[in-house]
Amino acid sequence: MNDVRAKYGALEVLHGISFTIEAGEIVSLVGPSGSGKSTVLRALMGLTPITGGDVEIAGEKMDYSSARSVREARDRMAIVFQQYNLFQNMTVMQNVTLAPLKIKRWPKDEVTAEAKRLLGLVGLAAKHDAFSDELSGGQQQRVALARALALKPQILLLDEVTSALDPELVNEVLDAVRKLADEGMTMIIVSHEMGFVREVANKVIFMDHGEVIESGTPQALFETPKTDRARDFFSKILRH
Fold first, then answer.
1. Hey, how many other C-beta atoms are within 10 angstroms of the C-beta on 57?
2. Other Cβ atoms closer than 10 A to 207
3. Which one, of 138, 139, 186, lies nearest residue 165 by Cα?
4. What is the rounded distance in angstroms from the CA atom of residue 22 to the CA atom of residue 28?
5. 53: number of CA atoms within 13 Å, CB side?
6. Domain that holds residue 45
7. What is the pTM of this model?
8. How many Å from the N-terminal Cα to the C-terminal Cα in the chain?
9. Is residue 194 domain-resident?
10. CATH number of 177's domain
11. Among 4, 32, 175, 221, whose CB has the most other CB atoms within 10 angstroms?
């Protein structure tokens, strides 16, 4: 992202965001509520209009004013939101295979085999015939992870995927993300789970008021932040 700006109506919410992510890297966006973290993910997916700057993926510049370019960006990325948004009238397997079959039109045998692999990866191999209302919140969020991965994205965007869960269900979702990290998936993670961020992220980007304030390794940012704003934030949030 190079000097990316974005607006909600007349209100500019991203004020020149710039950062680079390498393939296989896990980057976490952290900061107070309203700092623009989730907006960065929405802008990358073409859900929030980018009004300045540019985004380049694997050497190709994305033109978010073009519907075709937005589709190309969405082909490269998949996003998992706080709310799982599963189809309640479909089984787990149907939820995971719907987009690859209906939108991508990939062969059914290949899609089904990959869906079974992904459900195994997130610990839900035995639940492929279950309906959403038969699953816990943590299980539904893991289905949402498998559904996103079924589209074979180059980059996975995770937007506070544990924030809507009861505390005892958080770890089962984080365990699934850890497995994705072990597989080398490139991820941008928005999270308030600082222990998890410290464990899995290669890079942490601290944001406030729609700007990147500071970035570095988890150890550097958590232990020796350079800016007063980052020092104030981490001293408060890591105290607990």
1. 17
2. 25
3. 138
4. 13
5. 20
6. 2-84+155-237
7. 0.91
8. 33
9. yes
10. 3.40.50.300
11. 221
Model confidence pLDDT, tens digit, residues 116-160:
999 999 999 999 999 999 999 999 999 999 999 999 999 999 999
**Residue 19 domain-assigned?**
yes
pLDDT tens profile 190-212: 998 888 898 899 999 999 999 99
What are the structure tokens assigned to 220, written together?
């550097």
233 inside domain: yes
What residues have CB less than 8 Å from 59, skipping those under 6 apart?
none
pLDDT tens-digit map of 34-54 = 999 999 999 999 999 999 999
175-184 contacts: CB < 8 A, separation 24 or more? 175/123, 176/121, 176/122, 176/123, 176/142, 176/145, 177/145, 179/121, 179/122, 180/121, 180/145, 180/149, 180/156, 181/26, 183/121, 184/24
* Residue 24 is assigned to a structural domain of this protein: yes
Provide the sign of the torsion angle of the four alpha carbons 70, 71, 73, 77, taken in this order. positive
Q: Report DSSP state, residue 145.
A: H
